[in-house]
Here is the input.
Amino acid sequence: MGNNIKDRKEKQKRFDTLYKISKEIKEEISKPRPEPKALERLFNELYAYATRDHLTGVFNRRVLDELLSKEMERAIRHKLPLAVIMLDIDNFKQYNDKFGHLQGDMALKTVTDTIQKITRPEDFVARYGGEEFILVLPDTTIEKAKGIAERIRKEISETRIRPATKSIEKTERGYEKVTVSIGIAQLKKDGVQGMLERADEALYKAKERGKNQVCIID
Here is the structure.
């Protein structure tokens, strides 16, 4: 029930945002002399709305599909390595149920910020769904990807999550930390889909082996 209410609120919020941007663009272009800077700002907002996850600010799944396709073509054309990291927050449903959705959102943002702090400018981070993220690592071997994944895993496990509300601090401890499980794969002849399936299988193995660890099936 709680998830349904939250989903409805999020959809309404996104609709309101899109309506606001669209209305402002319509008003600006209807002027006798539209302001170029205002139009640029509004179109940038519209682009961000279409390509970014509204909560974490990283790319959404739709953009991820396009990025992976382009990076695969580039890797094949130039004979470069390409790796992906699939990351999932451990026991996130229990965390959400225990501390509430506001604190769950804070955990998602904290994890995202930590990932972006460690990844390179050429890497891409996308929210794959719920508490799952995918990192696309161009020009990266499986060995280098494992090093990046281990740094991310360790940093997240040591990062303190801020309380979303004052009342959270008074509850039973545990909201301050989360851990992640990570699966890694590299591009092979089976293409992007095969790479994602192997990363997902590796992630499942990491969960199966006790969570808070990195696993490779390649």
Remarks:
- The two ends are 40 Å apart (CA to CA).
